[in-house]
Request: fold
Amino acid sequence: MKSYDEKHIKNVVLIGAAKTGKTTLCETMLYEAKLIQRRGSVEEKNTVSDYHDIEHERGGSVYATAMHTEWRDYKINIIDTPGLDDFMGEVASSIRVCDTAIMLLNAQHGVEIGTELIWDYCDKYRKPTLFAINQCDHEKADFWNAVEEAKNSFGKAVTVMQYPVNQGAGFNQIIDLLKMVMYQFGKDGGKPEKLPIPESELERANELHNALVEKAAENDEKLMELFFEKGNLDEDELRQGIKLGMMHHDVFPVFAYPQNVTWVRGD
Ligand SMILES: Nc1nc2c(ncn2[C@@H]2O[C@H](COP(=O)(O)OP(=O)(O)OP(=O)(O)O)[C@@H](O)[C@H]2O)c(=O)[nH]1
Ligand SMILES: [Mg+2]
Reply:
């Protein structure tokens, strides 16, 4: 493997209440990065992350497990953590060493007690944190309720960046408010189709895009000036504002992704 200097190593930790899907997402990340040829599952007890006997017996993670992948000259260390509060020590120490925390929320259950307990460590260590809402394919999935609960619990910095179009069985479309496109995923993952936002979603997408732009502009005087000048920000400016906002805990972006696929960035 290549050697990386410190700037090119990023530690990302997956956190979230029990059974939100952290281990499943790690497995998908490794599979999509072509580091494994077959996608294991927690039920089949063959994921890369949950490899201890006790994890197989319990059907869930017990230890924090570090894995890694490479992306655009960066080495990304991915740490999968357990969700049960009995194992909070593993979670706290992983958050402490991370650059970015990804908090998973289940679209059916929204913010759970476990989410709040874990959040305290993101807050304590001031780590940039984003939300990834999954299980949108469930009959009872309610993405917008999960977002509302996150706003109530963690404040107005919670800002939607992607949202599902067709929640429930067959869910395979998300709208990306940064790029203002719709992604449509095949059922086995892989690269999604990039489509224009459908007419029926335009009003909502524009409204949320504007909210995202304002949130990004708030974090930098220059961006604010640009925003007043142009009434909008381009993609790079948006990224810059969101990055700054994440570093200061002024923005917690929210993403959505279908099961078996990782979200798309920089394609
Ligand atoms: N339908 C659906 N099921 C999912 C999704 N993501 C994960 N699951 C299922 O949810 C269950 C829990 O997944 P895990 O990956 O073990 O969750 P975890 O967060 O690692 O659980 P702990 O380690 O015990 O905290 C498994 O049965 C997964 O197959 C999803 O997006 N949709
Ligand atoms: Mg797990």
Summary: The first strand starts at residue 9 and ends at 16. The pocket of guanosine-5'-triphosphate (ligand 1) is lined by residues 16, 18-24, 41-43, 60-61, 82-83, 134-135, 137-138, 259 (CB under 6 Å). The radius of gyration is 18 Å.
